[in-house]
Specification:
- The chain has four helices and no strands.
- The protein has about 90 residues and is mainly alpha-helical.
- The protein is elongated and about 75 Å long.
- The protein starts with a helix and ends in a 12-residue tail after the last helix.
Length: about 90
């Protein structure tokens, strides 16, 4: 599919320079796959590890833990009657 899209862009643009973004995308995809899947199996180090702040921000498990801690904090707070709107 990427090669077909690249070919259609080249044909529509009329020059080979239209293929450059596609070639860069294909190369970066291959490099990512190699370094995340193949290189560690061969004994190499996985150096494409995201920073901890991104893992904490985007990881579903970490998000669930924070939701649980917020729920626990809200459940343990002091509950009173409160005031109705319009009363002084």
């Amino acid at each position: 599919l990427p090669y077909g899209l690249m070919a259609s862009d080249v044909l529509q643009a009329g020059n080979a320079a239209a293929a450059l973004p596609h070639v860069l995308g294909i190369l970066s995809g291959h490099l990512f796959f190699f370094h995340k899947n193949i290189w560690p199996k061969l004994g190499g180090e996985d150096w494409l590890v995201p920073p901890d702040f991104l893992v904490r921000r985007l990881d579903a498990d970490a998000r669930n833990k924070s939701k649980n801690s917020i729920s626990a904090a809200l459940k343990s707070r002091k509950k009173g009657k409160g005031k109705k709107l319009g009363s002084s």
